[in-house]
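Morning - 1,5-anhydro-D-fructose inputs below, output right after.
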Amino acid sequence: MSQMKILFVSPEVSPLVRTGGLGDVVGSLPHALAKERLDVRIVCPLHQSCRKLTRDLYPKPISIRLGKKTYSFSVSSTRLGDSNILVYFIGNDSLFDRRGVYSDEDGDFPDNALRAFALSKAAIELEKSIDWQPDIFHAHDWMAAPTSAFLNQKKKKLKRKVGSVLTIHNLEHQGVFSYDDFKDSGLPLSYWGIDGFEHNGALNLLKGGIQHADKLTTVSPTYADEIKTTAFGQGLEKSLIYRAADLIGILNGIDEKAWDPENDDAIPQKLNIGSATKGKKGCKLALQEELGLSREKVVPLYGVVSRLYQQKGLDLLLDIMPELLKQKNCQFAILGSGDSKEERAFRQLSKSHPTQVASFIGFDDGLARRIFAGSDFFLMPSRFEPCGLSQQYALRYGSIPIARRTGGLADTITPVESKSKSANGFLFDRPHPQELAKVIHKSLALYQDQSAFLNTRKNAMHSSFSWAAAALQYVKTYEWALEKKAQ
Ligand code: NHF
């Protein structure tokens, strides 16, 4: 087959527009796919923040009908970073010229269903404007999920074989709206219902995508298993069981150039496995100084870089921190924002224990990197974690992760308890404060045994999660999606 052409459909693509891990993946996986000789391009809405980034405007706008209205989209493009990968922006002021991607200070945009249909349908029509025809439409998350339905609707008119893939980055976000919103799609009524977009009487965009895509992927093998159960399926487990034969878990990689402790200007000392002990000491002392923690080389320092939501399980940590701080000489560097109750509680702990706890509410990329580099352990007690990127950054920067055995955390961390020669972290099972306390105590014991601790740290820094392995699996998935079309 000639070079396979893949169009990513996504509401975000880092570094152009990003609200979280989805943007990171869409911004880095194409580089690895390009190395596999795929022609990958990306289409994304022209959000307000992207307006100054577009370069080339295409002469032919896209015109699509949604419900009773016709919408016109400008098409412009830029390159992804310093690569040749093209990112197309579809512009429509009334739908996308907004301050946020999904919401602003007044909350979620009320027309998000319409905006999702617009992105998905415009992605299918894009080829008319750019003179390039994808073999595979690869949609990411709920906002792009309807792409496969629009493709199936158009199937008969297409004179070539085209496949579709949907990647679920986080099943918690499904895009749930009402039947009236479904009417905006202009899709026939046969696309509503149990084998379509309807779920519990409501419009569920992700479910529509799950029913319609040729192949489904999610971002780690363990999460692919978990989401077929009631405990993790967020109500969609039955649809996922129904599509189980087409569902594959592919572990996310990280951008190893952007997260390279040997060449990271944000950290005070470069880190590599050979000189890790000296480098980590320097980074730790500098972090203690920056955060106003007492400057001690031999006190274990725990880092947290996270959003503060229920999913992330930091309430479990808050429950046990006062006792832990009383019993043990240990330090915490926390960076995050989200739930105001958790924000307040962390602030309060830094006030009551200023030399032991430093909390920064907000986000600061440089500080995040210094926490990965300066901490001994990295806490990630997530209730569920589709893949998780932070534990991978922490491993690379020599901070030993302590996490719940779930999703990608279970797939990237080999627990010390397993006695494996490549053990690189700690895992606990039940999302219960006392289970977290137990595993933190185990890490404190490891810290006392410096040779075992340094060995585990070395293993952590050796762990490799590059995109190259994931890219090969995506290539296979695209081939399967096309084979399915041939049947
Ligand atoms: O890594 C990118 C990210 C995941 O676990 C993460 C999540 C959202 O929750 O795939 O998506």
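Note: The radius of gyration is 23 Å.

O.
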